[in-house]
């Protein structure tokens, strides 16, 4: 799984032309993944201003506005890819357009039935 | 007999397990136990390579058996299945044709890149490399790095578990990342050497062991990557540095700096070997030597000087200028400043060191303050020198270095 983190306040400042360029880059990235047969799933997330967090404590549901944690970089989207090993995943991670501005965390998914 | 062969055998097995080091190690230690039993009774087979092939054959059988057992317990267990399909088709005829089943350099190369993968933290890379390729046990590595046995064992298990869970491949990395990954491998070997080569007496035996292990790993890398200038450069640097080890402390174990060393104690064979590697490194890097080749070249210039006063400082300054371009770090700049002081005088050197001190990055670096102190002493500013020495003494963890600095202050008081 590729978890894409970036600074939302910077992203909010981008011009429409920059947005369009980024979308085009993501289009190409997506096509590359699909062509290689590596794409499983992926999505862009709405900004953290739209986030709501739920916790259940002693049986009571506590709902708070905002993200799970206030951090400098926020989770902005994700891809789930199917690749043979970490090096292959890292190569895709480096190609994520937002890696140039933010960061991409690579995490293996816990496979059901294994280990 | 086994330490020398251990890494190669483990590497060959790790290829069968798809990089699962834990499974490979279990099979190997069972095979060693079987070998010990067999050979205690019948004697070690007196044919080259046969003992290694025998151990490998038994270990591969264990992998197959283990996979069968695991499959019986959890039907469709993916990892076990992968191990079995990889191992089963090869084990029988390879076991019989012992000669062909010997480990290859490729396997060892895969192993070293796996152990030095940037997804692992640096301490884990060092421990893992010593453990797998070097054949050291957890408690031996623990003693050399002054951490508890349990801590080290845990560090190793955690690293091996991450390799498996994160899918760190058992492979030579893709070509476009090889330079970065190779640099990480060389750094691990360099850090192992440094840990063994520290000035402190520490536990002498373990420390010397680390120097030997680092040299062995560096030679192994040269065998595996004979055309790489930086690999040759690293081996050269280690050889030339190790050549001076006898002269670096006096008979009572006190530190002796380069200009005051008894150069007749330098090991000529190591210097000759190091010089050959430097030349090879410079040829291989074809006009663009990397940081290890350059540091080795500097060490070679020192080795060429019969007396400290014969040192070709102009050459050394020129090499540092190139090194600072290739590796623009404050530590390189500090060493450059020391060389400049030898040519243009201590004031010129001090100007550079003061600039580094103002930048603040090396504030907790003992050698910045020790160097400053020495330059101030040579410029006839004993009060400033004393202040710089006391800052250096504050930062000295190593008792030998601390005593050296305290001696320097005492000399200052006498002058």
TrEMBL record, chain A:
Every YCII-related domain range: 7-112
Q: Which Gene3D superfamilies match?
A: Dimeric alpha+beta barrel
Matches recorded under Pfam families: YCII (PF03795)
Query: What domain of life does the native source organism fall in?
Result: Bacteria
Signal peptide (UniProt feature, chain positions): none
PANTHER family, A to Z: BLL7171 PROTEIN (PTHR35174:SF3), BLL7171 PROTEIN-RELATED (PTHR35174)
Membership in a protein family: Belongs to the YciI family.
Q: Which protein is depicted?
A: YCII-related domain protein
| The organism of origin for this protein | Rohdeia mirabilis
Automatic annotation (TrEMBL), chain B:
One Pfam family matching this protein: DUF6596
One example of the protein's molecular function in GO is:
DNA-binding transcription factor activity
Annotated GO biological processes are: DNA-templated transcription initiation
Q: Tell me which SUPFAM superfamilies the record gives.
A: Sigma2 domain of RNA polymerase sigma factors (SSF88946), Sigma3 and sigma4 domains of RNA polymerase sigma factors (SSF88659)
Q: Which residues form a coiled coil?
A: none
Alphabetized InterPro entries for the sequence: DUF6596, RNA_pol_sigma70_r2, RNA_pol_sigma_r2, RNA_pol_sigma_r3/r4-like
DUF6596 domain spans which residues? 181-281
Q: Which residues form the RNA polymerase sigma-70 region domain?
A: 5-71
The record, for PANTHER family, names: BLL6612 PROTEIN, BLL6612 PROTEIN-RELATED
Protein name, as recorded: RNA polymerase sigma factor
Q: Which organism is it from?
A: Rohdeia mirabilis
């Amino acid at each position: 799984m590729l978890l894409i983190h970036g600074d939302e306040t910077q992203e909010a400042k981008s011009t429409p032309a920059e947005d369009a360029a980024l979308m085009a880059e993501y289009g190409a990235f997506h096509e590359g993944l699909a062509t290689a047969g590596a794409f499983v799933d992926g999505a862009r997330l709405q900004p953290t201003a739209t986030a709501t967090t739920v916790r259940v404590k002693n049986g009571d549901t506590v709902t708070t506005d905002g993200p799970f944690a206030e951090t400098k970089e926020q989770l902005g989207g994700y891809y789930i890819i199917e690749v043979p090993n970490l090096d292959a995943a890292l190569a895709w991670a480096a190609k994520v357009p937002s890696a140039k501005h933010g960061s991409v965390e690579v995490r293996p998914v816990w496979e059901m039935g294994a280990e | 007999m086994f330490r020398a062969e251990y890494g190669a055998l483990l590497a060959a097995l790790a290829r069968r397990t798809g990089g699962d080091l834990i499974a490979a190690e279990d099979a190997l230690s069972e095979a060693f136990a079987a070998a010990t039993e067999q050979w205690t009774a019948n004697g070690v087979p007196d044919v080259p390579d046969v003992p290694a092939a025998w151990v490998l054959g038994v270990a591969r059988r264990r992998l197959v058996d283990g996979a069968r057992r695991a499959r019986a317990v959890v039907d469709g267990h993916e990892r076990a299945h992968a191990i079995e399909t990889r191992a089963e088709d090869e084990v029988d005829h390879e076991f019989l044709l012992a000669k062909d089943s010997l480990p290859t350099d490729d396997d060892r190369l895969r192993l070293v890149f796996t152990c030095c993968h940037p997804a692992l933290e640096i301490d884990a890379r060092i421990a893992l490399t010593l453990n797998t390729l070097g054949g050291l046990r957890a408690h031996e590595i623990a003693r050399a790095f002054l951490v508890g046995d349990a801590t080290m064992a845990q560090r190793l298990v955690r690293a091996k578990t991450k390799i498996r869970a994160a899918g760190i491949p058992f492979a030579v990395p893709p070509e476009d990342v090889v330079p970065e990954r190779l640099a990480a491998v060389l750094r691990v070997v360099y850090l192992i050497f440094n840990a063994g080569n520290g000035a402190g007496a520490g536990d002498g035996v373990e420390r010397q062991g680390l120097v030997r292990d680092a040299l062995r790993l560096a030679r192994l890398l040269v065998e595996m990557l004979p055309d790489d200038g930086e690999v040759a450069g690293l081996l050269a640097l280690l050889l030339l540095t190790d050549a001076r080890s006898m002269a670096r402390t006096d008979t009572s174990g006190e530190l002796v700096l380069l200009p005051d060393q008894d150069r007749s104690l330098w090991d000529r064979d190591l210097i000759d070997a190091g010089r050959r590697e430097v030349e090879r490194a410079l040829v291989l890097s074809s006009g663009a030597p990397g940081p290890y080749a350059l540091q080795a070249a500097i060490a070679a210039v020192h080795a060429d000087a019969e007396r400290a006063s014969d040192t070709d400082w102009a050459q050394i300054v020129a090499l540092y200028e190139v090194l600072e371009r290739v590796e623009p770090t404050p530590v390189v700049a500090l060493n450059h400043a020391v060389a400049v002081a030898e040519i243009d005088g201590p004031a010129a050197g001090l100007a550079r060191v003061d600039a580094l001190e103002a930048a603040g990055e090396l504030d907790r670096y003992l050698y910045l303050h020790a160097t400053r102190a020495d330059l101030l002493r040579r410029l006839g500013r004993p009060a400033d020198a004393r202040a710089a020495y006391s800052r250096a003494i504050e930062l000295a963890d190593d008792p030998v270095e601390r005593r050296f600095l305290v001696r320097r202050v005492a000399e200052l008081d006498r002058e």
